[in-house]
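#struct-help
A.M.: can someone run this one for me? Single chain, 229 residues.
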Amino acid sequence: MKRYAPLLTVASVAALGLALLMVNVNGDPAPRQEVAAAAPVADPAPTTALAPGPAPEPVVEEPAVTPPAIAEIAYAGRSSGNEVTVAIAVKDGRAVAYVCDGKKIEAWLDGTLEGDQLSLRGADGAAVTGTVDEAKSLGSVSVAGKQWPYAAKGVQAPEGLYEGRSGVDEVAERIGWIVLDGTQVGVRNAGGNLGPAPRLDPEDLDGVTVDGVRFSVTAVTGDDQVVGR
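D.P.: on it. Structure tokens below:
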């Protein structure tokens, strides 16, 4: 009997250790799962009510600017290549003009001035169209089948446009003069025969005598009748 005591003691110790192991395994709680803490949700930023701003001002269109009406004025100038000289007289919305080269080309024209727009017509397709202001007139002149741009400045007597008329042996004669910058250009029309005009003294409009024929001379204004007579 004494020979088996150590074996029993070892067996008893082993059984006791196994029992303690089972108790520890069964007694521990289940492993805990780590739960990530949720990030705090920030409160939405408070909404600030904006005070209504002033209503936009309505867009006001500027009225079209109408050039001031020109009551009465005279212009004198030349075509771009100096082919012809041009004189224009305006009065109360009416306009007359004379175009000549001082030799064999001439035309008398009449028409209108509406705002700053000039429009005149004459015989055989003669025409003057352009614009005007208080200082100048710019546009285009057509005469004798040709057309040129022109530029004319506002002038005062003795510069301007003059006309002489007479009748000899039932043949009407007419002279046109343009006085500009101390010079004068004109054409004498004797029943369709054209030639250079005689010298005019714009300071003495009592008349001009040419080849013994007396011409009455007048300074032409915009409301004169110059076409069709």
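A.M.: thanks! DSSP finds one helix and 14 strands in the chain.
D.P.: also worth noting: Residues 171 and 191 are 6 Å apart (CA to CA).
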